[in-house]
Amino acid sequence: MRKLGRFIGVVALLTAAFTLGACGSDDDSGSAAGSSAKPAASASAGVGAPTKTHGRECTADDIKVTGGFGANPQIKLPDNCDPPKQLVSKDLVAGSGPGAAAGQQLTMNYSLVTWSDGKKLDSSFDRGKPFPLTLGAGQVIPGWEQGLDGVQQGTRRLLIIPPELGYGKGGNGIKPNETLVFVTDTVAIGN
Fold this sequence. Notes:
Pfam family, one: FKBP_C
Structural class: alpha+beta
CATH topology: Chitinase A, domain 3
Catalytic activity: [protein]-peptidylproline (omega=180) = [protein]-peptidylproline (omega=0)
Helix content: 10-25%
Shape: globular
CATH architecture: Roll
Family: Belongs to the FKBP-type PPIase family.
InterPro entries: PPIase_dom_sf, PPIase_FKBP_dom
CATH class: Alpha Beta
Distance between the termini: 29 Å
Protein name: Peptidyl-prolyl cis-trans isomerase
Number of helices: 3
Order of helices and strands: HEEEEEEHEHEE
Number of domains: 1
């Protein structure tokens, strides 16, 4: 199982390449606490293969998460709806204090489950070591940059990230057009 940190380096390079190719597209958008959805371009569900559809997109409420803030979460994905085509963010445990903004240091714990197979791919909880990042510095995938904007210390947040805001065409253990489901705990904001 590869660490998110390794993914981040590749994603930062891909993001930089995409940004140069897109001539300055702006991904900056705020995220309010609670449930929100953010537009993203639609992804083809598979490479050259027809996909089965359930007729409705899943919501944050369709994802079952057990465990409170600080505990290693158990994430169960539904099998009766399709992955969302836009970023979904929902606070499962409310935090307190000012919301995080670009340029601030965050210390995060996370667990990642891939939509296509419902399996855990990575977890800082399993390693027992939170993950540091600077919000807005391009160190993480766009789904984290957007989905963690405004997060408060002590928040457990569910992020459902479509491929365009994740790893797109895949790589480093992520399948092409994969939807990612993260449960994140904001351990600290600031140094």
